[in-house]
Specification:
This protein has 192 residues and is of the alpha/beta class. Helix 2 crosses helix 4. 26% of the residues are buried. It is rod-shaped, with a radius of gyration of 28 Å. It starts with 8 loop residues before the first helix and ends with a helix. Strand 3, helix 2 and strand 4 form a beta-alpha-beta unit. The chain is built from four helices and seven strands, in the order αβββαβαβββα. It has a seven-stranded mixed beta sheet, with helices on one face.
């Protein structure tokens, strides 16, 4: 009798159980490797353009009184920035309305989001327009042409910018994005 060739039924059952456990443990790893090599997940559609983080130069902004703009008011909050001349045309008014509605739609999270209108010229904003946007903060450029990355000068394309809680400009949007998609995207971003 050769003991190396004979296996008992309990040994065969034990080996099958061991192989089954090993297969169950290795199956998720094998599936992950196959999916990683074969399938690439779709990138989520974003309305905005992701920018390399760049600090917003608060030192180039002054308040209505001509003193440096007190940006401590928005410290540790997200900020929607819109740059345009103080003579707010219809497109400008629509954009300011969109930013107001987008902030309001965030519910309790709206406290994490501020709005800043950067005036790119010396025109005084319309008091009735400012009254319609009580949570809108505004500042003026120290010198016209400062912060060219924000645009908004003359007929240059205008954009909305999203500044993160550390004061970095991180996203750029068209000044007339699709409202519901913009609101949803803001809601996802300001959670962080």
């Amino acid at each position: 009798m050769n003991p190396s060739h004979t296996t008992s039924p309990s040994q065969r059952s034990g080996r099958r159980t061991l192989l089954l456990i090993a297969a169950i443990c290795l199956l998720p790893l094998l599936a992950a490797v196959v999916l990683r090599l074969v399938w690439t997940p779709p990138k989520p559609d974003s309305l905005g353009e992701l920018l390399p983080p760049q600090a917003l130069a608060y030192d180039r902004l002054v308040g209505a009184d001509g003193r440096p703009w007190p940006h401590e008011q928005v410290a540790d909050r997200w900020l929607i920035v819109y740059a345009s001349p103080g003579q707010c045309d219809a497109a400008c008014q629509e954009t300011l309305y969109l930013t107001r509605q987008s902030r309001t739609a965030q519910g309790k999270a709206s406290l994490r989001l501020g709005r800043l209108w950067v005036l790119t010229d010396d025109t005084q904003p319309d008091p009735a327009l400012l009254a319609a946007h009580p949570d809108l903060q505004w500042a003026r450029l120290v010198q016209p042409g400062d912060l060219p990355e924000l645009g908004g000068v003359n007929q240059a394309p205008r954009h909305l910018f999203l500044v993160d809680r550390r004061g970095q400009i991180v996203m750029r949007y068209s000044d007339h994005p699709e409202p519901m998609a913009f609101i949803k995207e803001l809601g996802r971003l300001i959670k962080f």
